[in-house]
Each structure stands twice: as C-alpha cells, then as structure tokens.
Amino acid sequence: HYYYLEIDGCSVADPSSELFYGCGRMSSGIEIPEEGVDYYLPQHVPHGEIRTQMYYSDITQAWRKCLVYTPAGYDENNTQKYPVLYLQHGSGEDETGWSNKGKADNILDNLIAQSKALPMIVVIANGNVSSGRGGYSNEAMAAFKQEMTQNIVPFIDKNYRTLADVKN
C-alpha cells in the first residue's frame, strides 16, 4: 500500500519506510502480508535474475530502462530459447513496480519450480512515454504502442534468446 505524510499541508514520504514510485511520484510503501499466503516470498527453489537493461528509444529520443527477468539456468544453457511475457505496471507507476513491490521474480521462481509456469523471460518496461502527449490519452497510448513494437520487442529479441515466432 502506498502512503505519505502530510506535514503543514505538504505531502512527504515517510523517511522510516521504503520508497516506491507510485501515484505518479515517490511514495512510502507498506506491505501487509496475508496470513498463510507465501507464493510471493523467497523459497528454497532455483532463482532467476532481474536485469536492468538500457536501450535507446527512437520514439522519445532518449535512453530508457526496462527490467528483464531471466529464469534460473538462463546463463548456463546458452542454446535454449524462451517465450517472453511483457508485463506492464499500472497507472502512476513505473518499470520498478512489479519487481520492487510485486515481487515478480519470487512469484515466477516459485511457479516455475512447481511446474505451474514454463521458464520464460519477462520484460517490464516503463509505459510512461506520454511526455507532452497528454497523460493517458489515446495519443499517449499510441506512443506507448510504438515504443513497445518499434523499440522494446526488437531490442529484447536481438539481445535475449527469445522464441520470437509465436508458432514455436
């Protein structure tokens, strides 16, 4: 859950909590675990890795960052190709949401170890490409679609061992 403190009418982050980018700005965060629920916690299973990947965007004319989860064993077997899931954050968040708050790596590690999911590459990109394009308007969404199809997907297919053909 996101929260912030109000001090003399000014919203500030709680210096005693972890900071997250949410609500369109840096916010404090608190996790309230559900009793008996552990699917998102680290377990004694093989662990994948979240990598920070920089790429140049022809859409924004700037360097951008995405996070890429690779499953356990990705670097050891350099011939295996993987399906790719492009996982997006919610409104007012950025590419760090699913890894920092959502614990996507732990969830994926646990699901793969339980054979409930296939080993895969997961790409978490920053969907905020709307600078000067009206927030979450149709024009901004069109810009993000261009970012994804013209920059992110080709970059990931070039630099990771992906199953780029959906028939495979």
In brief:
The chain is of the alpha+beta class. 22% of the residues lie in helices and 26% in strands.
- Shape verdict: flat
Uncertain stretches of 5 or more adjacent residues:
none
Radius of gyration over alpha carbons?
18 Å
Largest sheet: 4 strands, mixed
- In oligomeric terms, what are we looking at? single chain
Adjacency order of strands in the biggest sheet = 6-7-9-8
Which H/E pattern describes the elements?
A: EEEEEEEEHHEH
Count of β-strands: 9
Tell me the distance between the termini: 39 Å
How much helix, percentage-wise, in residues?
10-25%
Rounded average pLDDT: 87
> Which class of secondary structure composition applies to the elements?
alpha+beta
Strand % is 25-35%
**How many H/I helical runs?**
3
Structure description:
The structure is a single chain. The longest helix is centred in the C-terminal third of the chain and has 22 residues, at 138-159. The chain has 168 residues and is an alpha+beta fold. The protein is flat and about 60 Å long. A hairpin with a 4-residue loop joins strand 6 (49-57) and strand 7. The relative contact order is 0.18. It has a four-stranded mixed sheet with strand order 6-7-9-8, with helices on one face. The protein is 22% helix and 26% strand. The chain contains three helices and nine strands.
Question: What brief labels describe this structure?
Answer:
22% helix, 3 helices, alpha+beta, 3-stranded antiparallel β-sheet, 4-stranded mixed β-sheet, flat, 168 residues
